[in-house]
Amino acid sequence: MEARECPFDLRSDSQYNYEKNQRAFLMFETLKKDIQVVFERDPAARSTLEVIFCYPGFHAIRFHRVSHWLWTHRLRFLGRLLSHIARFLTGIEIHPGAKIGPGFFIDHGMGVVIGETSELGENVTLYHGVTLGGTSWKKEKRHPTLGNNVVVGAGATVLGPIKVGDHSRIGSGSVVVEDVPPNTTVVGIPGKAVYGKHTETQAHVDLEHGNLPDPTSEAIRCLLDMIHDLQREVRDLKKERPSEIQTDSSVK
Q: CB 45: neighbour CB atoms within 10 A?
């Protein structure tokens, strides 16, 4: 005989109050973390009051916390409506279905778009004009997944259900359509992965998204070095065996 679920809440008052207090504590800790990351990653922030009233990125994530709760509790229309209001007020569009971890920070924020099935880890930083977009019309995972401590530069676009590894950086204006390994810098259109000299995990978020290598320039520099080496070898051969080289040239 199958056991039936009891339609009544059998929790005691003390247990119910404890769970209520735990939820309130978590909400307060999340709010505190959202304010703290602004001071950690924006030297222009001067006071908590300024962050609360003058930072659209902070407003957008606070709106999203509520709209995501509505979305996960099957109040889909209210979730979409609240996210639409947030878009109107902040210029930042975050679908209520997107999963965003703690420590999320949007600098400036205007034009940022985060799709429905996007997943962002802890301490992710986005600059203005970033798009986390989908590449399919099917109701499936179609948006990117960003790991922990990822920085996406201004105007960058990350498309499709790809994964961006922890501690990676995406250069401004780049278009990323393939998976990105951890501790990797990606630049260009389409994005090309450039591995840094150090692969150890950093203790903080690297915000130097403007200090990026240029893989095309590096490739051209390598080719020029090879040509220079070949020219030097030819000169050395001419000095060592001048008679043989003159004979071959005369035969031709």
A: 17
